[in-house]
Amino acid sequence: MAIDLHEWRFYGAADTDHVLITYPDRGTNRAYCFATLCIVAPSVRFTLAVLPMDANGFRAKQEAVRSLIVEARQYVPIRHVYLDRGFYQVYVVAELERLEIDYIVRARPSTGMKARLSAGAETVVDAYQMQRKRPPTAAVDVTVFAVPHRTSEDEHVWFVTNLNVENETARAYAAAFRRRWGIETSYRQIGDFLPRTSSPTFSVRLFYFLFAVALYNLWVLANVLVSTGRKSTKPPISTRIFRTFVLSTDYG
Known about the structure:
Helix content: 25-40%
Distance between the termini: 39 Å
Radius of gyration: 20 Å
Low-confidence stretches: 6-19
Mean pLDDT: 82
Shape: globular
């Protein structure tokens, strides 16, 4: 079973204590950030935990990773943890090592990494040391591997891991990592359940997001129950139909 950690950015007016990344060119100047932990299984993306983040530095990400994995271990066995480039930091990887978790992290290739790519090589697998030279300093030994980009010629996708990767298995591990991209779809589907609001109050925004995640998980469960014994790449119950049914039901 794979677990994914991903930042969810919530655009709109926000309390200054929770301001993180913004995109003024898209009409936003404030943002909320949530770290989400998701189970990755064939045709299923279940959000297991949500953690609001009031900072975006390496210490905040390190703590988010630790908290979410500790939470996950209460409910499920963890096979691998997949993290995107936003978590490619030596302190985050060191935390994964302390937690004794098997992980693959999408890397931002450094000059030292690229130097390992010989002319004409399709894959790279090598020992590598991640370092932070500025205080507080840190270092962790990992394996770096790279495989050809699926759509861009003469480009490679880079990863760091503590798994036993070889040239013959690098592509398979990269393919396993690609499973996490389905989570991007789950974020869009969570958005289908997200109430609209212009409130700048963080507690309101947090409640709405958690409420949307709860409805999304219920929708996932409903589709699992309906799909029992069937093979289908498309959920039999759409978010639109599920939302209409749930929100129009009189529970009084």
